Amino acid sequence: MASKTDYLEGAIIDHVLRNTALTSPTTVYVSLHSAAVSDDGTGAELAVSNGYVRQSCAFDAPHATLGTTQNTSAVTFTASGGAWSAATHFAIWDASAAGNMLYHAALDASRTAGDGDSITFAIGDLDLSEA
Fold this sequence. Notes:
The protein has 131 residues and is mainly β.
């Protein structure tokens, strides 16, 4: 399960307890990281080269009693022009570049992509929790 970032935790507190509007992003994006990601939103995202870019993703409605959600479509990253560093973590963002990190987690296993290879997360592979 993924952890919320400090940014998202603060935004939720402001929204629920301080009557501060929280605007939901129209689209959220998945990023891959070559090292652990911190709650402060820092971590070694793969370099934007050899075809790497964040990928858009949608999630289902939260499970009523568990407070969990999962991706509703496959998310595919494809290397082109060269290999990428091994991905060990992922994060969810509110923008395709820069922006605010919302959630982060370690992958179950390290994933690598050589030139022309893809890293794919099947439907339900990306789990997020409010618990």
